[in-house]
Design brief:
The chain has about 250 residues and is an all-beta fold. The protein is built from one helix and 21 strands. The strands form six sheets. The chain has a four-stranded antiparallel beta sheet, with no helix packed on it. A hairpin with a 5-residue loop joins strand 8 and strand 9.
Length: about 250
Amino acid sequence: MKSILFLCIVFSSAAAFGQWEQLSGPYGGGANAFVQSSKTGLIYAATPNGLYVSRDRAQSWEPKGLQGVQVTNLLVLEVGDTETLFASASNYTGLDSLYRSTDSGNSWSAVFGHIPDPFDSYENKIISLLQKGSSLYLVLDGWQGIGLGGIFRSNDLGTTWTLLAQPPDSTAITAAVISGDYIVALFDNMVWRIPDTGGTWERSVHDTLGGTAFTQVGGALQTEGDTLFAVVDSLYRSTDNGATWQ
């Protein structure tokens, strides 16, 4: 799976000087997420009106299933010669679902119902789909603390799920990424991490991140190579999988 960069109104970067060219994006002009298959080169876009695919490097788009629902996250899980596409979607009634396709998005099956009760409640929102090797991770935020959020892992392409970790006191998870052998997450106004095999949460160390609550509860996490970035009340960087920050 390749990482690609787009703006919400789809643009393409020019060869030099950081210039951008506006493209004819998916229907409606906006997208929640993009992902590219390294096997087929297809670019998939998650939009408020279903899934779209581009076969010509984002020059044109065509619908590819899940029409009429808001697709929020995408992930291409590549294991050996096989490729499985996952998409999380909301039907605007507060119920998030997870879908799986093994034929490049031509057909879809729902796999969210395999998550153990009570975590398949409408009070949970899917905020992230993560991958490490052949393992798939599903991050539920608990709908801002109302539901039971947590991180689940599947080793069989989403057929069955195991609860890996929950934040303490049902705190809502607002962002999560995999960095090295850890899952790094934002919750309780701070940055936390836990081994990707499960265990105990530990709080990241920084004069601001470790000792003082964020001024912004939300934020974002992003990995780039061996460096992890956190955007909360400011921009921070970690080169040791979220243990310490600068």
